[in-house]
Write a structure and sequence with these properties.
By secondary structure, this protein is mostly helical. The chain has 1 helix and no strands. The chain has one helix spanning 2-101. The chain is rod-shaped and about 125 Å long.
């Protein structure tokens, strides 16, 4: 029963508007859906772009930190080498003093 009423309403609308009008309505609906999909895709692209820029900034910061750590490591190696040299000189002097006392 409901199907008959629905068919009657659809037939009446189709007759009143005509095939051309229904086609224009359908075409407009498809265009709106495509526009929405395009807008969503653009929004997604923009979001991805922002995420990529954020990650790039973080990578740059990490590269700077790595450079700082490499420089610090080099300075510490130099300091360690000087300390080893002083220790060797001290040990040599100490050994020489012991030999001369004997």
């Amino acid at each position: 029963m409901e199907e008959e009423v629905l068919m009657s309403v659809l037939t009446a609308i189709t007759s009143a508007l005509g095939i051309k009008e229904i086609w224009l309505i359908w075409k407009k609906r498809v265009e709106l859906n495509n526009k929405k999909l395009t807008k969503d895709a653009n929004l997604k692209d923009k979001l991805m772009s922002e995420v990529i820029l954020d990650l790039k900034e973080k990578i740059d910061n990490l590269e700077e930190k790595i450079d700082e750590l490499i420089e610090e490591n080099t300075m510490l190696r130099e300091k360690l080498a000087r300390m080893e040299e002083r220790l060797m000189l001290s040990a040599t002097k100490s050994a020489q003093n012991k030999r001369s006392k004997l």
